[in-house]
Amino acid sequence: MLIVGGNQSAGGYEVDNSLRFNSGSSDYLSRTPASTTDTKTWTWSGWVKLNKISGNEWLFGAYSSISLNTKIYLDNNNNLNVHTENSTVYRVQTDAVLRDFSAWYHIVVAFDTTQATESNRIKIYINGTQQSLTEEASGYPTQNWNGIVNNNSYEHNMGYEPEASSYFDGYMAEVCFIDGTALDPTSFGEFDANTGIWKPIDVSGLTFGTNGFYLDFENSGSLGADVSGNGNNFTVNNLTSIDQSTDTCTNNFATLNPLRSFEFTFSEGNLVATSDQPPDNRSMALSSFAPESGKWYAEIKVSTVGAMMIGLYATDGSQIDGTDRIYSSTGGIAYFSTNGQKYVDGSSSSYGASYTTNDIIGIALNMDDEEVTFYKNNVSQGAISLTSGKIYNMGISAAGTSACVGSFNFGNPSFTISSGNSDAKGYGNFEYAVPSGYYALNTKNLAEYG
Length: 450
Description:
By secondary structure, the chain is mainly beta. It has two domains: 18-245, Jelly Rolls; 258-449, SPRY domain (Jelly Rolls). It has one helix and 33 strands. The strands form six sheets. Strands 1, 3, 8, 9, 10, 15, 18 and 20 form an eight-stranded antiparallel sheet that branches. Strands 11-7-6-5-4-12-2-19 form an eight-stranded antiparallel sheet, with no helix packed on it. Strands 21-22-33-24-29-30-31 form a seven-stranded antiparallel sheet, with no helix packed on it. The longest helix has 7 residues, at 443-449. The N and C termini lie close together (9 Å).
């Protein structure tokens, strides 16, 4: 399994934290510069993990009105766009589509309208590679065009577009802004010599310029703190300490994957799954990682029980067809809330205790010995044998006519943990002790144990 932002060489630069934005909570960061500086030349760099299949996803920009703004955003087709407008609309977009919701992307936008060659005025890089761009509207801005980024008359936002009142849904890490210089991605990252994966480097020595900033999100009490030395701190809007995450571009944690799920909607960094109203019996919300070996632990807090099936979807790696459920997939295993029964290959039998809202169900998936054990509030319900040769995604299904909501914790919880337990490598934050020999489902552990 090769995931951008994972499988790094030992001893490399480590990113400890990211910030989790949830569009349903209107999360964003805002700042108005103290002075106007260079409105022609700047660089924005950030590591981003996306959550939504489609949506107007504003990453960074400045806004005055529908006809006066400069912004970096993902459109409804998941193309990355740079748009600058003062009556005339100049816009370019990537030909590449960003639709891998299990990966971290590194995005660099170099904006420099002083360039004589128009294609040099906006450059977009993804994971260290310059992207081919399509011109939309009037294409590239004219030479020496003044946008409104770095203009102190306008509020600058990350994660919020005022025009449509739309909010970013996903994670950001290592966000840098360089005032007055257009840089290429080698100022922020490099290709790993062993894996060939693009990875971050230490940016603390960069010259950021007057309005420049560096957000590392390491201070849970001041999530908008600028650590560049400039003190260009952002105002935090609707983000709290629970939104500080250890899912980063150097250790990528499992989440839920909207491309391999249906009849569920997702929130809180693709960690909370809510079944549609009314729910469909053919429904699944599945993890983004499906390990082929090793021992793995996760927890699901039952936020609304409905008739919930928590378990493992069995696959040989082929595409799901939209009619399967966890408990009816060939080799699939589920633990049913209503009566505590287990379902294996679609057949039910007695198993353990029923569970309800606010219970926490642990999943200990042992791919080496081909068995899984479910825990209810840290009490083992017993081991169940897996079907040999299958690959398993953790997940849930709605099995009745009432809604259910499951909050997943693969070591990076979206809900408050009262105790706090990590695995033997020190990764993860779980409500209950991780069973001996089991690990949080992230890329560092997968590289060693998967």
